[in-house]
Model the fold of this input.
Amino acid sequence: MTIFVILFLVLFLVFIVQIIKLLFLAIKKKELSKEVKKAQIVFLCSVFVLILAGMTVPENVKNATKKEEELKKKAKEDKEAKKKAEKDKKQVESAKKKENNCVLGIFCEDKTNEKKLQKEKIGERNINYEVLRDGSYVNKNGVHKRTIDILIPYCDITKKEMTNNLLPKLAQYAKNYSLWIRFYCDRRFYKLYDGATNGSVSLREDGTISTDSLKFHKTNELMTDKEISIYTEYQKLTGTSKNSTDEEKRKFEEEERNLLKKYNITEEELMEINSKGFSFTL
Done:
């Protein structure tokens, strides 16, 4: 590119010299015809060379200029993309941190909770609940503990329904307490020793919230009403019976036969339902 500019300037200088020479000869009128003819030829050649030089810019010069512009443009786009990616990453991390600390509304402002409740998606079921038990105490370290058992209306409650609809409603129970909430989708499970069907959520003493123990069931995995009755009654039977003596064993076997007869099922079917119920509350 630099060589082309120098060549163009040299040719332009020759062109200017010829014009000056023509003017000088015209003023002096010395050997006008011969000198004018010579100057005209040089003049026309200079003009032709200038035009030709302008039209025949080396292709590699054009390509180099174009490539340089493209590289600058690409570098600018890469810089903007990187900046946008970092911004998006920070927003995601901030949103995730806010979700973890705000899932029960403990660390949220009232306006945030109200806005969240107003944004419940169309089509989501309204999840009402019933408190089956609410107990609290102070441990030896002076920490206020609270355990609440909640009855929910659906065994197939979704994660979105639990997080967006139900948990914000339970925020009131977490004030000033180390909280543990267990969820039951049928009252019959609550009567068992460990029958929480949909897991639990806890607010640890350090202020963090754990939802890892929540459990969600697919609709095609749900237990029928009959299966729930059989499972819960059998669990009560096995939980209260004693098999230490022959008489106690005989009584247990008789009650088991009555259960089979009541629901018209075989012992194999009873074991399958028992296994299903165990997995359902695991």
